[in-house]
Design goal:
Helix content is 48%, strand content 8%. The chain has 121 residues and is mainly α. It has a single domain (9-109), classed as DsrC protein, C-terminal domain (Arc Repressor Mutant, subunit A). It has a two-stranded antiparallel sheet with strand order 1-2.
Amino acid sequence: MRTRPDILSRIDLPSGTVTVDAHGYLTDPNHWSRDFAEYTARQEDITLTDRHWEVIDFMRQYLDEHGIAADARFVLKFLAKRDNLNKHDAKAAMFDLFPYGYVKQACKIAGMKQPRAWSTG
């Protein structure tokens, strides 16, 4: 369910204060920082590894280059190419990194706005 845009919270981080919606997604992806990613990952009970950071960096670069958040299929292609995986194994790798899904965890940690209608795959 899409969050209400009028319910916002502020989070004070070492790199500055950010505003998030009711589900913890940044309201402005330009305010993302590694501090935000680490804070959000802790909230999601994820310990970020180098593999997580590679996916997050890919997502951030995609946003910078295209002006929109990467759809899950682009991240799955990235994982497949990086690790020489088939589509099924790339999806399994994604869920190993982000057990509750691409939108619920990867997008939130990478500082994307909450998507309106994406699948969680």
